[in-house]
Amino acid sequence: MRTIYLNKFEASVYLHRLYDELLIIEGLDDKHPDFYSIITENLRNPISPDAVKKGYPRGNRVTYGKIEHIRIGNRPCFFRSELKKWFILHYAPKLLLEAA
Known about the structure:
Elements (H helix, E strand, L loop, with lengths): L7 H19 L8 H8 L6 H6 L6 H4 L5 E3 L2 E3 L2 H20 L1
Antiparallel strand pairs: 1-2
Protein backbone atom coordinates (compact mmCIF):
# COMPACT_ATOMS: atom_id res chain seq x y z
CA MET A 1 0.00 0.00 0.00
CA ARG A 2 1.34 3.38 -1.02
CA THR A 3 1.50 6.17 1.57
CA ILE A 4 0.07 9.46 0.42
CA TYR A 5 1.58 12.63 1.81
CA LEU A 6 -0.15 15.99 1.67
CA ASN A 7 1.69 19.22 0.94
CA LYS A 8 0.86 22.43 2.86
CA PHE A 9 -1.92 23.46 0.50
CA GLU A 10 -3.54 20.02 0.48
CA ALA A 11 -3.23 19.85 4.27
CA SER A 12 -4.94 23.24 4.62
CA VAL A 13 -7.80 22.12 2.35
CA TYR A 14 -8.21 18.93 4.40
CA LEU A 15 -8.27 20.89 7.68
CA HIS A 16 -10.85 23.27 6.23
CA ARG A 17 -13.04 20.30 5.33
CA LEU A 18 -12.81 19.04 8.94
CA TYR A 19 -13.62 22.56 10.11
CA ASP A 20 -16.70 22.76 7.87
CA GLU A 21 -17.93 19.40 9.20
CA LEU A 22 -17.49 20.63 12.78
CA LEU A 23 -19.44 23.82 12.00
CA ILE A 24 -22.37 21.78 10.69
CA ILE A 25 -22.33 19.28 13.58
CA GLU A 26 -22.04 21.93 16.31
CA GLY A 27 -24.03 24.68 14.56
CA LEU A 28 -21.24 27.24 14.95
CA ASP A 29 -20.62 30.48 13.06
CA ASP A 30 -17.84 30.44 10.45
CA LYS A 31 -14.74 32.35 11.64
CA HIS A 32 -12.97 31.88 8.26
CA PRO A 33 -9.67 30.49 9.59
CA ASP A 34 -6.63 30.52 7.32
CA PHE A 35 -5.28 27.02 7.84
CA TYR A 36 -2.45 27.58 5.35
CA SER A 37 -1.09 30.39 7.55
CA ILE A 38 -1.65 28.33 10.70
CA ILE A 39 0.39 25.50 9.17
CA THR A 40 3.12 27.87 7.94
CA GLU A 41 3.52 29.48 11.36
CA ASN A 42 3.43 26.07 13.05
CA LEU A 43 6.39 24.90 10.98
CA ARG A 44 8.62 27.71 12.25
CA ASN A 45 11.44 26.79 14.59
CA PRO A 46 10.21 27.93 18.03
CA ILE A 47 13.74 28.11 19.47
CA SER A 48 15.62 29.80 16.66
CA PRO A 49 18.51 32.06 17.69
CA ASP A 50 16.31 35.11 17.08
CA ALA A 51 13.51 33.69 19.27
CA VAL A 52 15.98 32.95 22.07
CA LYS A 53 17.36 36.48 21.77
CA LYS A 54 13.86 38.00 21.97
CA GLY A 55 12.87 35.69 24.81
CA TYR A 56 9.75 34.09 23.37
CA PRO A 57 9.10 31.22 20.94
CA ARG A 58 8.35 31.77 17.27
CA GLY A 59 5.36 30.35 15.48
CA ASN A 60 2.05 29.32 16.99
CA ARG A 61 2.83 26.01 18.68
CA VAL A 62 2.10 27.50 22.11
CA THR A 63 -1.41 28.40 20.96
CA TYR A 64 -2.24 25.45 18.71
CA GLY A 65 0.12 22.63 19.64
CA LYS A 66 2.51 21.05 17.16
CA ILE A 67 1.23 19.79 13.82
CA GLU A 68 3.16 16.59 13.18
CA HIS A 69 4.89 16.39 9.81
CA ILE A 70 7.89 14.91 8.08
CA ARG A 71 10.25 16.57 5.67
CA ILE A 72 11.04 15.13 2.29
CA GLY A 73 13.93 17.16 1.04
CA ASN A 74 13.09 20.58 2.42
CA ARG A 75 9.31 20.23 1.95
CA PRO A 76 7.00 19.52 4.84
CA CYS A 77 4.61 16.63 4.24
CA PHE A 78 1.58 15.69 6.30
CA PHE A 79 -0.48 12.57 6.96
CA ARG A 80 -4.27 12.86 7.03
CA SER A 81 -4.42 10.86 10.26
CA GLU A 82 -2.00 13.22 12.03
CA LEU A 83 -3.87 16.28 10.78
CA LYS A 84 -7.16 14.86 12.00
CA LYS A 85 -5.65 14.03 15.39
CA TRP A 86 -4.24 17.58 15.70
CA PHE A 87 -7.60 19.07 14.71
CA ILE A 88 -9.54 17.00 17.27
CA LEU A 89 -7.05 17.46 20.12
CA HIS A 90 -5.97 21.08 19.63
CA TYR A 91 -8.05 23.16 17.23
CA ALA A 92 -11.62 21.94 17.80
CA PRO A 93 -11.54 22.35 21.61
CA LYS A 94 -10.37 25.98 21.27
CA LEU A 95 -13.12 26.66 18.76
CA LEU A 96 -15.78 25.08 20.97
CA LEU A 97 -14.56 27.03 24.04
CA GLU A 98 -14.78 30.31 22.12
CA ALA A 99 -18.33 29.50 21.05
CA ALA A 100 -19.49 28.67 24.60
